[in-house]
Amino acid sequence: MTAFEIKKAICEVGHKLYDHGFVAANDGNISVKVSDNEYYCTPTGVSKGDLTPDMIIKIDGTGKKLEGKLNPSSEIKMHLRVYRERPDVNAVVHAHPPVATAFTVAGIPLDQYILPEAILTMGAVPTCEYGTPSTMEIPDSLAPYIQDNDAFLLKNHGALTVGNTLKKAFFLMEEVEFNAQICKHARELGNVEEIPCDQLEKLMELRKKMQIPGRHPGCKKCKNLGTENCRCKHNAESKSTCSCGTSAASADEDLVAAITKKVLAALGR
Q1: What pLDDT does residue 241 have?
Q2: Which fold has domain 3-189?
Q3: Alpha helices, DSSP H only, in the chain?
């Protein structure tokens, strides 16, 4: 992609974040890696709904401005921390999706396994400790989770998603909020039924076969089929095993095929 095409793509994502209600006023920021030490990013003080390519600036790995009339957001620090720790990441999106953010405000983790698509693409989303915006506290809060996750909730401060492409990072932001909405509605209806442990194992095997890019935390905790605090070792990098000893009916092949088709379409593959 040319420099202009990258800037245009960043603006399009910014417009979508604003149109979706994931940001208000001048909230949020977006960045894309263009070399080992160069990044395009959105400026401070500009609504994501008003972004134009000429507003996008270029910075180096220390946050120093290389190109552009405007200045980078002070929150670019958390983007740069991700790029330093995760060479596989080429884009970072930070926004304030309302329902997902509300989970952090309420102190409720977004870690229930309820949607196959969310399980395949990101798994349970960790909540990072609260940090003061614009300081190193927020980048530091990512440290415990940065190697195993592509989506993060920032306590009382929104969400951060990363990807090998800008589209992937944005799609994960959509997935975080959609998953949060479904979980909220289920809670309001009075019951949340998680996908059984053995089915999680099959989904992780499916993720491996589909070669979905990015990191995944696997299934670290479940309470399915009556097993309390079950510790399951599902991992996309190795053969999945489950320590809970539970069993259930095999997954419906048509359902798996439909999920595969939907996820591939979302990833643009």
Answers
A1: 38
A2: L-fuculose-1-phosphate Aldolase (3.40.225)
A3: 3-19, 76-85, 98-106, 116-121, 137-142, 166-189, 197-210, 253-266
